[in-house]
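ugh ok fine here u go
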Amino acid sequence: MSEVAKKFDSWIEDNGPAALVIREYLVSAEGPDGVIFPATYAASQDGSFKGGYNIDKVGETENVCLIDSVGSQANRIEPLFTKEGYSDLVPKIIVRAGEKAVNLLEAGHRAGDAIVRCSELQDELHAAFKALQNGNAGPLAKIAPTSLVFGAWDSRDTQAKVPRLIALTIRAFNVKPLTRSAQYVPAAEYVQSGLLPEPEDKKTKDAYSERGFIHVPASGSPGGIIASGGIRRDATLHLAALRLLFSDSQAKTTSLRRYILGLALTAFTWSPAGYLRQGCNLVTDPDRQREFHEVYNDGRRVAADFNHSDALEYARVAVNEFGIGPNRTVDFDKERAKRDLSGEAANGKPKKAKK
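structure:
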């Protein structure tokens, strides 16, 4: 085992760092004063949030805008393990649903997703989540190891929760929200030319508008932001949470933690593309250096001195020791889905009501 790998190995011990923390400073590809478009969110049911950008006030004059959430960042990074050079680190689980084949790494709720719950993996996953609740993460690591890295919640069955080891978020500071307006002009004057009758009521007019037969103004829509206080990507790998993973023996616990640490480090040190969505293309800020630290329980912050290649090297050593689960292709089962909809548990008995 290399010296770098030996260092990583010390992190699964109780006296290792509490966390690894990366702070990266980003900027719009258009420049520091470029307009970027954050994620938009639906209005809350209670009306306290009207929908649009998630901008929180901090004090009297400052604010913070969420550019990309923890869940969104996880969903951008997890498919890394489908790529060449990484796919052999995890089992390949494919679920065929009609004409579509879905990789478990692309399922929104990971091991807790309906697409795997309603397949022949249902009983295995049920048993794996129950084992996790009883303190043994080994069975889940053989089927869905990235669920132990990015988190999962078996909310429709066992209620088992797997905390995220990795949390990554992109935020902008002291932002200036902008608005935009537009005007749709149809290719022809359908009503004025007599090609279509004058709409007699609002329902008909709305239908004309939706189908592009009349002029449609759009005013005051969210038009992006200018991040006056900069943009920052914060990433944390919670090593203290990793050390809460156990298997059914000390030797297996060590190999399990090495394996999950290898996957976590590989994902943690890999930077996804900065193109998040239309109007939001972020690049590294050349004027601000990235910060990368090991953080200890006593508050010490020590500069981390490894890179993505080192992490991948350790992951390969760990996977050879742990032994990944088998690759499998299974079918979505309509009968299991019907039973799931009816509230029937994996064992065929009615599910107990939630407390």
